[in-house]
Design a protein that fits this description.
Chain A: It comes from Longimycelium tulufanense. The structure holds two protein chains of two kinds. Chain A is mainly beta. Chain A is 8% helix and 17% strand. The chains are: A mainly beta, B mainly alpha.
Chain lengths: 96, 337
């Protein structure tokens, strides 16, 4: 699924929602904090984290794949093992 | 770069004739007995590397006209057949429907294919081991992206645009100092290694050359364009997290920001590239050319298999308390090991 918006320079901003993955941003976008401080972007296409577990936020670092893996229901151990109340978990010691 | 030292009859013959005028010396076909495993055949992998390098930067002592010399291409084809037979034997992939290619790539790359080299280097690896790891990787990383670029003129439409989008970023988006192959030099320098192109070919074993040769094999032959795309996708899809670990490992060993830049850069860059490679490149290529679906997955599986084989080699050597290189290596003075 993709949303488009005309950027300032006439280059349409495209936001691509990657399935079980980040948001891909292309076009004349600016990323800034809530107080308006611009975050340096060093490439034309960026991936924004949407699992909340990235170590290099706001950008994606692929950690969502570990989250997903650990979130799969366990068949051997009891249900819910290794997941937090939100249903996702990354073992910061073992996995990271 | 200079011609490497031969490792057997074929590479010995090649190193000898390539010094002469092109075309004046007939090159016999390969009549040698194939070694049990082409991936670990030192003579075969070095000979292939020699043939392929003529298409990249060439050798100081070799006339550029050798690149398209028919007898040499014939010899190369024989070596490639042996390599391909071994790859087919090592890597079995199930048939896949074109629409399922991105999912198949996701499943393949989320399965463990070997021991975890990233975990070892993150937590326990010594500076000497990290240096060896970087030395092995320099065979490919000093020409990073180049073999996959061969795919661009062989694709059209969306898969082509996807490959260009990835490669443009690999090449620094127009800034030479940001090209990945250039950034890698900082890591090499920080570890006391010579960052010259092809400097360490003589030091690495066949399996390391195979990890680079396989991309040249896929890249230089149009019929392998699907495998080339799949190979790139597999690399991108197994990059962010391992590189995060490599960066953390090098920081643990005292590496500064410049030394770890290469790894830190790949964490962020490849989180982007993997999405583009799996879906926009491989997914749309499989739909446009359904016959390539199996090749795409095969290429990805080859990348993972050879990467795991190299990791196995490194960890096994270190486990025995030995070097993973072909010969003891003289580090520059003042470097810890």
């Amino acid at each position: 699924m993709t949303a488009r918006h005309r950027g300032r320079g006439g280059n349409p901003i495209t936001v691509t929602l990657c399935e079980n993955g980040p948001l891909l941003l292309r076009g004349d976008f600016v990323i800034q904090t809530q107080d308006g401080r611009q975050i340096a972007v060093r490439r034309r296409t960026v991936a924004l984290c949407r699992c909340g577990h990235s170590t290099v936020g706001p950008f994606c670092d692929g950690t969502h794949k570990l989250v997903r893996r650990r979130d799969r229901p366990s068949t051997a151990a009891g249900s819910g093992t290794g997941t937090d109340p939100a249903g996702t978990s990354v073992d910061t010691e073992e996995e990271r | 770069m200079r011609l490497p030292e031969p490792r057997g009859p074929v590479s010995e013959h090649l190193v000898e004739v390539l010094r002469r005028e092109p075309g004046t010396v007939p090159i016999p076909g390969t009549t040698r007995q194939p070694a049990p495993s082409a991936v670990h055949d030192e003579d075969l992998q070095l000979s292939l590397f020699l043939c392929y390098e003529l298409h990249y930067r060439g050798f100081d002592e070799v006339d550029d006209a050798w690149e398209w010399q028919p007898e040499l291409l014939g010899l190369r084809a024989g070596l490639e057949r042996a390599f391909e037979v071994d790859l087919r034997d090592r890597v079995r992939v199930r048939p896949v429907a074109p629409d399922d290619v991105p999912t198949a790539l996701g499943d393949l790359t989320s399965t463990d294919h070997g021991p975890s080299l990233p975990r070892h280097l993150q937590r326990k690896g010594t500076l000497g081991q990290f240096r060896e790891f970087v030395l092995h990787r320099s065979i490919y990383h000093r020409k990073e992206a180049d073999p996959h670029t061969w795919g661009i003129p062989r694709l059209a439409g969306r898969p082509k645009a996807a490959l260009v989008e990835i490669q443009a970023d690999e090449y620094g988006g127009g800034q030479p100092e940001r090209m990945h192959a250039e950034i890698f030099r900082h890591t090499m320098q920080a570890l006391g290694l010579d960052d010259g192109y092809g400097r360490y070919v003589d030091a690495v074993p066949a399996v390391t050359l195979a990890t680079s040769n396989v991309i040249s094999l896929f890249g230089l032959r149009r019929r392998w364009r699907g495998a080339l795309a799949g190979h790139l996708a597999a690399i991108e899809m197994t990059s962010s997290q391992p590189n995060r670990r490599y960066g953390a490992g090098l920081r643990r060993l005292g590496g500064d920001e410049l030394a770890t830049w290469f790894f830190d850069e790949h964490v962020v860059a490849d989180a982007v590239h993997e999405q583009i490679a799996a879906h926009d490149l491989c997914g749309t290529l499989a739909r446009a050319e359904p016959d390539l679906a199996a090749d795409i997955v095969f290429g990805a599986a080859c990348a993972l298999d050879l990467d795991a084989e190299l990791a196995t080699h490194l960890l096994a050597a270190w486990d025995r308390g030995e070097s993973s290189l072909r010969r003891p290596f003289g580090w520059s003075s003042g470097q810890a090991s």
